[in-house]
Amino acid sequence: MLYSCFSSQLDSYPVSKPDLLVALSGGIDSIVLLRLASIYANERHLKCIAVHVNHGLSQHAFDWEGVCQAHCDFLSIDLYIERVQLTVTAQDSLEEVARKARYQVLDKHMQANSLLLTGQHQDDQVETFFLALKRGSGPAGLSSMPSITPLSNGYKCRPLLTVSRSDIEQYAQDNELKWVEDESNKDTRFDRNFLRHEIVPNLVQRWPSFASSVSRSAQLCAEQESLLSELLQPKLMAFQNTYQGISISQLNSESELARNMLLRLWLKQFAIPLPSQVQLWVLWNEVAKAKEDANPQLELGAIQLRRFQDNLYCLPQYQDLSAWKKELSNTLDLPDALGRLIFSTGVEERDLNNKNDEQSLLLRAPNQDEKIAVRFNVLGLTAHPEARERSRKMKKLYQEYGIPSWQRTRLPMIFYNEELAAIAGLFVCRTFSGKECELIWKKTDLK
């Protein structure tokens, strides 16, 4: 019965001849999963491998490697053991850091047709539902874990989500399988373990079908979320510009419920944790609706939400480059994924005709006593672009050129000695105008 459920689930996935990759921890769930995947692969003549990630968090970690190797040898399945070192700060969740490290190494073994099989089951789904309920999640969170999720390569699949823990334990006992027990799974200081050992067993004892009922509720929440996304997708696409900024004025014409859902769908595109209700309120009322001359922002983990003109933008947390300064001779690699500057002399006439106006600027050659330096975010400057009649403060010029406030701090400023000569990608100052030198900015980050 367990294999029938497993095989029918895999048959429903959208890859006709998949490569199977089993995420093998050595615990009972993954050991049973490995056995089922081996049978399925042999029946259908598919490639099947296993990957064990050793996080080094347990004193028994190397013993677990041996257990995994023994099972794979018995089944003639290739096992890849990946050992990772975790760097955890006071602000980090150990579980989240370990999860990210695990999926980074698993991705190395994935192909476009790979199915990454993990051993989560119905009881895990119940725990995930309760954790989402504790956080006050809406339908998206309460939908818990999907059976299949697309990855950059292949798919992550949970083919045992409709199977109970007791059925998995029974299968392991019937087939005399050996597995390892992670001692941390018994520590009820962790929320998931508290639910597993203290709460869910009492609920199931009172209502035996409780786990399947929760699983059904999670599925209904997932369907509702999917329908809302489908209905709002045309508006979401229409409200965004070419830089994935979303229009504030168009959002303002929607009801509060529709607007909040559109904002969640917009943020979901960036694969970041979705904001709480309070954060969503702050995003709209203190960022989107702030005064025109304000420079509001909301930080959510590793990203920042900013407003420019009539749009909201989702951006990474950028480095502070105000203290960065380097001399420029021929080429210079810029910090924080900003690309490279190329400074060439002796520009020929044919180069002038083919000049890319967006990335290339022409300047006079520096005098013998002039050194060229590149800096960022130098404040209090006044500049006179060669195409203008008079000079203006940089703040006013940035406004005229339509440069968002966060991008202004990331534009390379070219100095001849201590005088501003050019802003890469933007303009050359009049007194430094010429045709002897060309400045090219090969950008890798345009946000």
UniProtKB/TrEMBL annotation:
The N-terminal region contains the highly conserved SGGXDS motif, predicted to be a P-loop motif involved in ATP binding. Residues 372-441 form the Lysidine-tRNA(Ile) synthetase C-terminal domain. The lineage of its organism: Bacteria, Pseudomonadati, Pseudomonadota, Gammaproteobacteria, Vibrionales. GO terms for biological process: tRNA modification. GO terms for molecular function: ATP binding; tRNA(Ile)-lysidine synthase activity. SUPFAM superfamilies: Adenine nucleotide alpha hydrolases-like (SSF52402), MesJ substrate recognition domain-like (SSF82829), PheT/TilS domain (SSF56037). ATP binds at residues 25-30. It is found in: Cytoplasm. Ligates lysine onto the cytidine present at position 34 of the AUA codon-specific tRNA(Ile) that contains the anticodon CAU, in an ATP-dependent manner. Cytidine is converted to lysidine, thus changing the amino acid specificity of the tRNA from methionine to isoleucine. Pfam families: ATP_bind_3, TilS, TilS_C. Its EC number is 6.3.4.19. GO terms for cellular component: cytoplasm. Belongs to the tRNA(Ile)-lysidine synthase family. Keywords: ATP-binding, Cytoplasm, Ligase, Nucleotide-binding, tRNA processing. It catalyses: cytidine(34) in tRNA(Ile2) + L-lysine + ATP = lysidine(34) in tRNA(Ile2) + AMP + diphosphate + H(+). It is an enzyme of class 6 (ligase). This is tRNA(Ile)-lysidine synthase.
